[in-house]
Amino acid sequence: MPTVSGSHLVVIGGRSGVGKSSAAFALHDLLRQRDVQHAVIEGDALDLAHPAPWEHRLAERNLAAVWANYRSLGYRRLVYTNTVAVLHTTSIAAAMGDEPRVTAVLLSASDVTTCARLACRERGESLARHLERSAQAAELLEEKAPPEVHRLATDGLLPVEVAQRILPLLDWLRA
Q1: Which InterPro entries does the UniProt entry name for this protein (predicted)?
Q2: Residue extents of the structural domains in the chain
Q3: pTM for this structure?
């Protein structure tokens, strides 16, 4: 594998149901097929607890620990997913501790699409809660995401098609 001098963080954000995780896993497959060294971290898993430990910055602390382990093995490319990650790229990059170059991608989808996707994994009251939070997140992200964030609608796209549209935003195939 070629050596990469600096780190590169790719942040994939978006409301629940847009396909963040599916796109990241599909991107992983495309990169693996091309033998491009990288890591994928689901940001939601870094502080998934009850009560939620957000005020303690547990996600950033856990990311710092996990990334340190990857970095010690020579990894320099990270794909990170989290709903509002595109709003927090500075703190996510800081948690990596090595001043990565950042590419942020905001995925979007219609209410109909996100409802159908969420209905595949949620039921009853849980579905209703997820739909409400997803709609709120969509409004927040649309309003607050900086202009330099790449925007990609996922309606009608398979995860691999989303990943294929993210791939050209990276220069990982040339390194």
Answers
A1: P-loop_NTPase
A2: 8-169
A3: 0.92
